[in-house]
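Listing S7. Sequence submitted for prediction.
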Amino acid sequence: MAGRSVLTAAGIGSVSRPYSDEHLVARVTGVRDAELHRLRDTDLPTYIRLHTAGLESDACLLNREETLAAFGQERVDVIWIDYAIRRLNQVAYYACGLVKYDVDIKEEADELDRDIVGHDVYSAIRHLHRPGMPFHRYTQFDDLTPEERRYSRRVGSLGLLNLANPLLFGRPNWTPQQGITYSLGLGYSMCAFGDFVEENGWLLWGRDLRIHVYLRQFANEEHWFPGGGLRVVDYPLGGPFHGSLGLHAWSQPENLSFAGSRGEIGGAADLLIRWDLLEQPPGGKGSSLSLDAGVVAKTSGFLPEEASLDARTGLRLGCTLGF
């Protein structure tokens, strides 16, 4: 998930520059102001998602690494450096809400060279609170109103919850008795209508039953909405085939409104079948190769990693190569 994926789902072309520039920012460019202005005025949740998608992507990658470690499917020493860098960068980015932090950049003369949103956190907060203000992309701390600065402090404070994950400190799981392994962790992310806090739990029962369960508390400006889900991960189906099934349910603000008080119920289901062509040998050293096929169906609403906020049914095809 990234800003470019959200733009593509909205029918807007763009150019991704995944490498960091002199300001240590990876950019998405190639979009005219008029297109972004129109998107903001006609579909504010999708426009806000342009800001939060990169942070959302990191949160999903971190969750996958935690899942691999919790179930003993990957060694901590293999993933820890990537995990720690992503996790601390995520916390630091949200922590910009706690202090005045100005990125010394000005909007380029050629609008096609401009990043689509600038500073993700500040710009998302400004547009959530004042979607009808005169349009410009880059937001500095001084552009925020006192109310918006209070909200930014909330974002920075809740972002510290992302530190409450044992993998960050080198602990993948606990085994209180033979045949049972578990792990726990917290998370925080901004999203299309505000933000959410989540509590994750992983349980490995025996050798084959891997369960990931989570609770989420979505929030807009003043109201909270519950959500949660459960995934059975990599369950053996016989021979070289494994299956993963996820079920998700939520209440989110009606029309994904930042100011609304009424909730709207939604949900999703996703199924993935993996065909192992080459299995990694015991001990985690060696190569693996699999073909993956899946289907996902969701109602309208926000679901991490799904680029569209509308109801949809989609197919997934791919392969996974491990070393």
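Caption to Listing S7: primary sequence and predicted structure tokens for the chain studied. DSSP finds six helices and eleven strands in the chain. The first helix runs from residue 3 to 9.
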